[in-house]
Amino acid sequence: MSPILHLRGLPRSAALALLTCWCATGQACPVPANELIQGRTLYEARCGGCHAVDANRVGPMHRNLIGRQAGHVPDFAYSPALQSSTVVWSAKTLEAWLSNPEALIPGQRMNYSVRSAEDRRLIIEYLSSEAVSARAGAGRSP
Length: 142
Known about the structure:
Elements: H1 12-24, H2 33-47, H3 80-83, H4 91-99, H5 101-104, H6 117-128, H7 130-133
């Protein structure tokens, strides 16, 4: 049984404290569905002009982004800066990238940043979700 089910019936503050502790142990921390939907909406609005989850466009595809080394999507022409980068995509590196791509990887070609920390958080949650980490065509979406 999911540990989340054991939180039912607890006062909200106690449930949030337990959930915070559970997530801090390294367990997969569930993201509320409404936040994934917000993240997907922001991704489509802010990133969708150049990127897609399952296809290379002006920018590389984002399927299975978390844990992937930057500059290593097959059949995409990266800048020399990204090709030689040692950055591995994680929530932390995506936060830095979306805040200021040039500061993270000087010489890269993405001339766009996300100013709002909350918008970055929601986009990163979406990109980290099973909806984006699942294999293409698996039919998962928040």
